[in-house]
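Minutes, structural biology subgroup

Action item carried over from last meeting: produce the structure token record for Histone deacetylase family protein (Futiania mangrovi). EB confirmed the sequence was re-checked against the source entry. Recorded below for completeness.
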Amino acid sequence: MKVIFNDAQRRHDPKFFLSSGAPRPNPEQPARVDRLLAGAKAAGLARMEPVEHGLGPIAAVHTAEYIQFLDTIRERWARIDGASEEVIPNIHPDRRGGAYPASAVGQAGYHLADTACPISEHTWESAKVSAWTAVTAADEVAGGAPAAYGLCRPPGHHAFKDLAGGFCYLNNSAIAAERLRAKGAARVAILDVDVHHGNGTQGIFYDRGDVLTVSLHADPVRFYPFFWGYAEERGEGAGLGANLNIPLPRGTADDAYLEALEAALKRIRAFAPDALVVALGLDAYAGDPFQGLAITTEGFGRIGAAIAALGLPSVLIQEGGYLSDELGDNLASFLTRFRDAHGKQG
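Output recorded by EB:
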């Protein structure tokens, strides 16, 4: 199994983050990369550079209007007299659709859901390469590899078709799933194990029946993203029944999590997909700064082995997992047990 990554993904270095009204350092730091690469190396993965794919695979998921915004907003923002160094919205509209503002300030409010995803000089470049990392991982699997790990940074699962949020700009997991579809997978399942609900991924596929979206996460009644991730959200139209949310009590630890995961895997088996995308958040860790769930390093290994038992061609896409001494160990635990169990399925 290969780890796919390019150093351009380090260049995005966000500074601003607003938590409970107080400015704090942004947790989505480039230093995450070193610990994740160390974890992949410890698991025996060989590094591979992503292939540049242009905007096509991104535009298969995101709107042209949104892509143009991400491409141009930093330069336009810099021309505003007295503007902040990073693009940060100061308006959050109560409606989207209909009229579209020409103002850079108005468009920032339209396309940025919160203040957790500031846009600076290198953000668009890093986000594009992160998306190409997801595409390259999907191509590896579509080409016959049993699995591939895309070290996508910045992450993506909170990004909707035309809306950034929660450190996420382009939805790498959705891009990987759409790429697998384009490469011949009639049905794809996305399993999101990040501590936060994958609201952007859910939104992108909510009315589609060809992509099953499943998310295990801390109960959003008191946890980000607050407004999505409830068990009642089942999809709509052609997608009715193709979305499964499993919200978990804060502090859920290994054994209870594995029990809930089995319910998720049962739904995936019933969907009978041709391929699987795992939105691999490691922020469910007991020592993660967000303190949502209480998974141990050993627990991540058990999660990896359980997912691998599906026996599906699998694209692993890095989502959350923030700075702690054990971040690399948690990834190594997941990848090692996943690889070993997945090999037995063959």
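Discussion: The CA atoms of residues 112 and 164 lie 5 Å apart.
Next step: EB to file the record with the rest of the batch.
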